[in-house]
Design brief:
single chain; alpha+beta; L,D-transpeptidase catalytic domain-like; eight-stranded mixed barrel; four-stranded antiparallel sheet; 17 helices; 34% helix
Length: 544
């Protein structure tokens, strides 16, 4: 008992000592006992990166998307938004705002930014540029949208108006080929993605929008004529000219300039069918002018641009399909071969000469045969032809001396689609001086010879066949010309909904029909005919 009591006393004393302040037990004083497993999990140790390897990067926190941008993206993804807008414009906007960070382009919490206001006001003045301001669905300039959704709607509406304006400024308001089959032109509409990028970077959005309109001198002059016609009489009332036909004619001609190539060329040929004139322009100045004969209504001269390639002196002439079927086939079927002798036409089949009297013209396909007129005094192309390859195979050329009288007429439509000029030798001299650096004496030598001589141009000279019924001269005077092919009538209907004051030209007399079909002014027919001209319509080829 005494031993047990002693142990209990020592245990209690030791416990009291251990709990006493400042007491500690040295490691060497502790008994060496085996370590027991810990019941508490060990604290995780930091990861030790292998040698020469950086620790893993910590991704930065993603910035919160602007709520207006988020709403814009959502709205552009909704098919019901902008359903009447151009598909390319909508796609460009979706891509633009998907990549954009920060703030929207135009709207702020206080309404439209200064740049947005400038764009709004400029589009509102579209009438001054020959466009229609009412065609653009603009948000109110003083709008103060408060919610992100309202701000997004305002931003999108202004964007769509800007892209539509840019497209219209570059000729995208109408499709020329839907207006007339004669208009072989494709407007160079600016890529909407580029428009958004450029106007975003522009210091003055209004000036950027102005820069999208044509820079051609005639466009600038027509615009000034438009502003003058719409000016007031000093008392706030519009002048009488503000409601008449001239304003519409100016606007439709401004529209045609939007379809022209932006770069006409440092030297170019300008053929204007309604004016019956051609010009050679160098560095913006006219250096040569001449009268022309163009095609009749049934064989109208088309509108397009191509590069002058070759001047052919003393050319041969191959009768086109329309001449073969309409002028040659009827007499040949009757056994009348004098037409071939009178016009010195030789006949060949697959390159081999053929005696026309031995052909059954009532059964055979006359279009399988070639009717050729060699160069000479009676050649319908005269002394020269000017080739600018195109799908219409239309070209320019001289004409027979007996046809020169038609250059004195005010209205000069005769023959098929090609263009004839009054002074072809001078025209050739100008072209070869500018294209090849030739002196006029070298051109005269080829002109005076009887040998067929093709000459290729060394430098490109664009040829523009146009249909402008209004032009402005250097003094600012507006001149208008008759709508000889009825294209004004179609354009004014498309732009203004009515052709009042723009009558359709009277049709030509009906031409005789043969089994091969009658004449047609369709592009397919014109192309198939090879576009070769004749001395002048039906009577022109057969003689006066």
């Amino acid at each position: 008992m005494r031993g047990a009591h002693l142990i209990a006393v020592l245990f209690c004393a030791g416990l009291a000592l251990a709990l006493a302040p400042g007491f500690s037990v040295r490691a060497e004083d502790q008994p060496a006992t085996p370590a027991e497993p810990s019941l508490t999990p060990a604290s995780p140790q930091p990861f030790a990166a292998p040698a020469n390897q950086p620790p893993p990067a910590i991704e930065p926190a993603q910035p919160q998307t602007n709520p207006v941008l988020a709403s814009i993206r959502a709205k552009l993804a909704d098919p019901s938004v902008g359903k009447s807008a151009n598909e390319d414009d909508l796609a460009a906007l979706a891509a633009f705002y998907a990549a954009r960070t920060g703030a929207p382009l135009w709207v702020t919490e206080m309404g439209f930014s200064a740049g947005g206001q400038a764009a709004l006001f400029e589009i509102g003045k579209a009438d001054d540029w020959g466009l229609d301001a009412a065609a653009f669905d603009l948000p109110p300039a003083g709008a103060l949208p408060t919610t992100p959704d309202d701000q997004a709607s305002a931003e999108i509406k202004l964007d769509l108006a800007i892209l539509k304006y840019a497209r219209f400024a570059h000729g995208g308001r109408l499709n020329p080929q839907e207006i007339s089959e004669l208009l072989d032109q494709t407007p160079h509409v600016r890529d909407p993605k580029m428009v958004l990028s450029e106007i975003d970077a522009a210091a003055a959005p209004d000036q950027y929008l102005q820069s999208l309109h044509p820079k051609h001198e005639q466009f600038v002059r027509l615009r000034q004529a438009l502003l003058k016609a719409r000016s007031t009489d000093g008392e706030g009332a519009a002048k009488p000219a503000a409601n008449d036909k001239d304003i519409k004619r100016i606007i439709i001609n401004m529209e045609r300039w939007r379809w022209m190539p932006e770069d006409l060329g440092s030297v170019y040929v300008w053929n204007n069918s309604p004016e019956f004139m051609l010009y050679v322009v160098k560095d913006g100045k006219t250096i040569y002018a001449d009268k022309t004969l163009v095609g009749t209504i049934g064989y109208a001269t088309p509108v397009f641009t191509a590069d002058m390639a070759t001047v052919v002196f003393n050319p041969d002439w191959i009768a086109p399909e329309t001449v073969v079927t309409e002028n040659l086939l009827p007499p040949l079927r009757e056994g009348n071969y004098s037409i071939l002798r009178v016009h010195k036409l030789s006949v060949s089949y697959n390159g081999s000469p053929v005696d026309p009297a031995r052909v059954n013209w009532s059964r055979g396909n006359i279009l399988s045969y070639t009717f050729l007129q060699k160069t000479g005094p009676q050649n319908v192309l005269g002394k020269a032809k000017f080739l600018f390859p195109n799908r219409h195979t239309v070209y320019m050329h001289d004409t027979l001396p007996v046809r020169k009288k038609y250059f004195k007429e005010p209205v000069r439509m005769i023959g098929h689609e090609c263009i004839r000029m009054e002074k072809p030798q001078q025209f050739a001299a100008v072209l070869l001086a500018e294209g090849n650096g030739w002196p006029a004496s070298k051109v005269k030598a080829l002109w005076d010879s009887s040998a067929q001589s093709p000459v290729s141009l060394e430098h490109k000279i664009p040829v523009h066949l146009t249909y402008f019924t209004a032009v402005v001269d250097d003094a600012g005077k507006l001149s208008t010309f008759a709508d000889v092919y009825g294209i004004d009538n179609k354009m004014v209907t498309a732009l203004f909904g009515s052709a009042a004051g723009f009558p359709v030209p009277p049709p030509e007399p009906k031409k005789p029909e043969g089994e091969e079909g009658s004449a047609s002014s369709s592009p397919a027919r014109r192309t198939a005919s090879g576009g070769n001209d004749i001395a002048g319509s039906l009577s022109g080829f057969l003689g006066d």
